[in-house]
TrEMBL record:
<protein>
    <recommendedName>
        <fullName>Endoglucanase</fullName>
        <ecNumber>3.2.1.4</ecNumber>
    </recommendedName>
</protein>
<dbReference type="GO" id="GO:0008810">
    <property type="term" value="F:cellulase activity"/>
</dbReference>
<dbReference type="InterPro" id="IPR012341">
    <property type="entry name" value="6hp_glycosidase-like_sf"/>
</dbReference>
<keyword id="KW-0119">Carbohydrate metabolism</keyword>
<comment type="similarity">
    <text>Belongs to the glycosyl hydrolase 9 (cellulase E) family.</text>
</comment>
<feature type="active site">
    <location>
        <position position="421"/>
    </location>
</feature>
<dbReference type="InterPro" id="IPR018221">
    <property type="entry name" value="Glyco_hydro_9_His_AS"/>
</dbReference>
<feature type="active site">
    <location>
        <position position="481"/>
    </location>
</feature>
<dbReference type="InterPro" id="IPR008928">
    <property type="entry name" value="6-hairpin_glycosidase_sf"/>
</dbReference>
<keyword id="KW-0732">Signal</keyword>
<dbReference type="Pfam" id="PF00759">
    <property type="entry name" value="Glyco_hydro_9"/>
</dbReference>
<dbReference type="GO" id="GO:0030245">
    <property type="term" value="P:cellulose catabolic process"/>
</dbReference>
<keyword id="KW-0136">Cellulose degradation</keyword>
<dbReference type="InterPro" id="IPR001701">
    <property type="entry name" value="Glyco_hydro_9"/>
</dbReference>
<keyword id="KW-0326">Glycosidase</keyword>
<keyword id="KW-0378">Hydrolase</keyword>
<keyword id="KW-0624">Polysaccharide degradation</keyword>
Length: 502
């Protein structure tokens, strides 16, 4: 019997049963702590004394000082002291600005909606994870009219299997400016800075206003000089974080976050004026570092559902139809599920879709429940409880309720991925092997059948294939590589389920 063909009422019963019958209850608090700890393993730059993942050390301290950008760098050095810091996106050692900004936006959204569910200690750890990114994004946007969007030549980096601490590959710096626009990466960077300004509003008001004023100027640049960054930076960013989907969504997304953060009328007017021009309703069942459409509509719907913005009702209609597209058994259902019940989309690193779509399900479920509303899906309707249970089913799959009975979060539960595609995790640590390990010397560790020596606690990998199978092998990077944007939305999901239980 296929889950996809069941009518909604049957599905609700099944979801209820599966949570009641689950062999073990998950320790969401443990998973939450680990999901945040993971970000410490991705840190670039000068590590602070309270760094908890001890097998990592300082790396890439001279980022931003390569010869190619000497002129700008001299100016930048005066203003900011270079481009050290920030996060490596995944299992390599490149700092890609586009996914780093999206990660920051989602970590911030996790805290904005679910920070109250985290408890003081984990809320502080999550906020520190945001600040590690925003400190960097402030440097990357310190020169007006310029955004530094990447450090590291991806081809040079991917040609080596090296610890970040040993890295001697090209640290080329890439930027956008008015002659080489990038409304995608600049729009997402503005969204990240604006969202983070909300996180810091009461915690650190001065930092918060700095973030907000920077968000405003970066958005202005993004909107005034329109274009996709992959036009001028194709060789550097494609196929890794090429803008496949266009920059229009990031402009609306940036405006939506600026509206939420600043309450300025100009952003509300921008959203209303540009809704159609910038295709707010397009490709609605996607949400990730490239495509923000579903996120825009869910974010803006909150205000409509709170009765504060009836003129934005069309965004709620879009959000409703997005939600219907995720629910198995409704007429316009479009999203596929694996036989074991995991949301599955083609293209690799499937877990990024699972966590970001589940985040939207849970956030929307909360907005609906406060407004006492349901989602109309064809002739049926979906309740906030159904949305929440579907999100929980996805989180539980990640933590071990799946055909292989394994957790896809490293270090959580009795069985988890041991050979993740991650340079730092798979090579011996600096403590174990103080000598330099050169580019090609790393290959034998990459190809080794042994488990990784350094446990990257909390990393969630790309996950199983369409048939719920998982190779647990480094060369299968689509399955075994963790990324920061898989974890960022998961932080919010885990906080909620920790606070609210099963
Ligand atoms: C998933 O992986 C398993 C084991 O490697 C393989 O047998 C199966 O064909 C794969 N399924 C798909 C749909 O790729």
């Amino acid at each position: 019997m296929s889950l996809l063909r069941l009518a909604l009422p049957t599905l609700i019963v099944l979801l209820h049963l599966s949570s009641v019958n689950a062999a073990r209850r998950h320790d969401y608090g443990d998973a939450l702590r680990k999901s945040i700890l993971f970000f410490e393993g991705q840190r670039s730059g000068n590590l602070p004394p309270d760094q908890r993942l001890k097998w990592r050390r300082d790396s890439a301290l001279r980022d931003g000082s390569t010869a190619g950008v000497l002129k700008v760098t001299v100016r930048l050095a005066v203003i900011t002291g270079g481009l050290d810091g920030g996060y490596y996106d995944a299992g390599d050692n490149v700092k890609f600005g586009f996914p780093m900004a999206f990660t920051t936006t989602m970590l911030s959204w996790s805290i904005i909606d679910f920070g109250k569910n985290m408890g003081g200690v984990e809320a502080n750890n999550a906020v520190a994870a945001v600040r590690w990114a925003t400190d960097y994004l402030l440097k990357a946007t310190a020169v007006p009219g310029t955004v530094f969007v990447q450090v590291g030549d991806a081809l040079s980096d991917h040609g080596c299997w090296e610890r970040p601490e040993d890295m001697d590959t090209l640290r080329t710096v890439y930027k956008i400016d008015q002659n080489h626009p990038g409304s995608d990466v600049a729009g997402e960077t503005a969204a990240a800075l604006a969202a983070a300004s909300i996180v810091f509003r009461s915690r650190d008001p001065r930092y918060s206003s700095l973030l907000l004023s920077r968000a405003i100027s970066v958005f202005e640049f993004a909107d005034k000089h329109r274009g996709a960054y992959s036009s001028s930076l194709r060789k550097a960013v494609c196929p890794f974080y090429c803008d496949f989907n266009g920059y229009q969504d990031e402009l609306l997304w940036g405006a939506a976050w600026l509206h939420k953060a600043s309450r300025r009328r100009e952003y509300r007017e921008y959203i209303v004026k540009n809704e159609v021009v910038l295709h707010a309703g397009d490709t609605i069942n996607e949400f990730g570092w490239d495509n923000k459409h579903a996120g825009i509509n869910v974010l803006i719907s909150k205000e409509v559902l709170m009765g504060k913005a009836d003129y934005l009702k069309s965004f709620q209609n879009n959000a409703d139809s997005f939600i219907c597209s995720l629910l198995p058994g409704v007429s316009n259902s479009q999203v596929q599920y694996s036989p074991g019940g995991l949301i599955f989309k083609t293209g690799g690193s499937n877990m990024q879709h699972v966590t970001s779509l589940s985040f939207l399900l849970l956030a929307y479920s909360n907005y609906l429940s406060h407004a006492n509303k349901v989602v109309p899906c064809g002739g049926k309707s979906a309740t906030s409880t159904q949305l929440r249970l579907l999100a929980k089913r996805q989180v539980d799959y990640i933590l071990g309720d799946n055909p292989l009975r394994m957790s896809y979060m490293v270090g959580y539960g009795p069985r988890y991925p041991m050979r993740i595609h991650h340079r730092g995790s798979s090579l011996p640590s600096i403590t174990a092997h103080p000598g330099h390990i050169q580019c090609k010397e790393g290959t034998r560790f990459y190809l080794s059948p042994n488990p990784n020596p350094n446990v990257l606690v909390g990393a969630v990998v790309g996950g199983p294939n369409r048939s719920d199978a998982f190779p647990d092998s480094r060369p299968f990077f689509q399955e075994s590589e963790p990324t920061t944007y898989i974890n960022a939305p998961l932080v919010g999901l885990l906080a909620y389920f920790w606070a609210h239980g099963a």
